[in-house]
Input
Amino acid sequence: MENITISAATPEELRSGELGRKLRHYNYGFVGEYPEQQYIRLNARDANARLLGGLRGSVFLYWLNIDVLFVEADMRGLGLGSRLLAEAERQAIELGATNAKLETFEWQAAPFYRKHGYEEYARIEDYASGFYLVSMKKSLAR
Output
């Protein structure tokens, strides 16, 4: 172990995807082969090209992982977040997802996600000083 070095991955190493492939092939021994991670990246813009909101997520091991869903304050409550979420879920189902999951802080959108069928399955109190982080999930099975 004394001749081993640890260093930051280079941009070329990141682009190659070698590390992810090694992990995926290891995982195949346990859960069988599955598709590579697929990304869902949605933007909502008005007629003037103003970015009003968007969603960033991916489908991995048949789960939609929602990383970011954001809607500008003046557009909240008008259904844009619901439209973004529904489109992401639709695309995820097409990619083979059967479930969805996300994390959100208590000051963010837990009630919004509950309204759309997500349920809390874990919580970390005081994740950000004085605020909890909630993990939520939803079945996409129809």
User: Anything to note?
Assistant: The domain at 11-139 is CATH 3.40.630.30 (Aminopeptidase). The mean pLDDT is 96. The chain has one domain: 11-139.
